[in-house]
């Protein structure tokens, strides 16, 4: 062991010894806010105290501000039992977590404690601060190559790269959680770190068992903070999720970080800010909320070394208003957005991704020229159909009036079928382009067509898109054209 490594190990071990015990006293309790005197000289914003409540209950608290020489604390648990004069013991100045690869397959709370009934968690040797700074802008690497998300609509129309950060914007009940589970199961990543923030407690176990499943959980760490937990717990769950993702990134892993949802994280920040006396701003959100969002979201992305964090963050838009303050702020920070449309969901097409309103900022730079042309044509057809959709549905459009509209009417139903995907189905990245090319009747390179065919089940054409006699079988349109030419040649020979 080298000297620097030995010194670092010694310092990490030294951090485990409890510091000198210092105490203050509770001076006031108002709502969620606890005011403490006697420690204002040693406490700082973000510091921790344990309030010794009645009944020998220890309530961890975090310092959120100061007023009239008193420290303002928000508890991570219930304030019941906290009375005037209760002791407030100074705790660790900066909260840290000691992750370990053995945490994979486990479910923890915002404090890093196991809640899955599988026993205690082993503690790693490296201590990671919960509130770390993002990597330096000039030191971190650029985003990597394409990442296979396993969802056909995203792989083709909103292609994502390793280290990219995307937002999933949706109202309630539009299929956001199901899409998240598909991404967790099918994305080609080394590790998943999943944060369920403000979820209904009843749905957590259902999502873990039915949506994520044993296979998805085996390569994941799930951090849970339910809606009934105090705002500091919901906020810290996001910090813990990012710290765990950074641990695996620093060890050279490609990490998929999923957080559902950033909106509930912002709501927790709003409650904390209002309790500390901050003035409300847009829709009641305090100014600190909009300062905190980029600090958290920027922690995702490429690392300084080989690892990366691909971040997918859901945003629960209030009243389906995609321009509300949090949605607007998050959209400006991330590298793209995926919009789930309620009208598409009501038509029964899932995942209900609105491809025209969704965008990936790494496209088309990560695509080949052929892929860009293919996707551009499909988007143009969808846009034309949407512009004339009302007239088409009521039967007011007359066929032949506009060749572009006629073409859109011909192809859009098949494009919609292409965008539809069952949650138990995994779609390969390359097969998506080949399948879309077949839908649009466009030629596609033989190697792409064959790889695409292998991933599309139940289609005779796709099964036949292998090789015969060492030559690729041409697409349907080429077969029809060859038959017509052969027939015409035969007829000409008979006439001769």
Helix- and strand-based class?
alpha/beta
Tell me the helix content: 25-40%
Give the total of beta strands: 19
Give the percentage of residues in beta strands.
Answer: 15-25%
Q: Can you summarize the main beta sheet?
A: 9 strands, mixed
- Counted by DSSP, the helix tally is 16
If you average the pLDDT, what whole number results? 85
Radius of gyration: 28 Å
Gap between N and C termini, in Å? 91 Å
Shape: elongated
- Could you list the spans in which at least 5 consecutive residues all have pLDDT below 50? 448-483, 491-496
Present the secondary structure layout.
Elements: H1 3-14, E1 23-30, E2 33-37, E3 48-53, E4 57-67, E5 70-75, E6 87-90, E7 96-97, E8 107-108, E9 128-129, H2 152-157, E10 165-170, H3 176-186, E11 191-199, H4 201-218, E12 220-226, H5 231-250, E13 254-260, H6 262-275, H7 287-297, E14 301-302, E15 308-316, H8 325-333, E16 336-339, H9 342-346, E17 359-360, H10 369-387, H11 389-394, H12 403-419, H13 429-439, H14 446-455, H15 460-464, E18 467-468, E19 471-472, H16 476-495
Parallel strand pairs: 8-12, 10-15, 10-16, 11-12, 11-13, 13-15
Antiparallel strand pairs: 1-2, 1-6, 2-5, 3-4, 3-6, 4-5, 7-9, 14-15, 16-17, 18-19
Helix pairs in contact: 3-4, 5-6, 6-7, 7-8, 10-12, 13-14
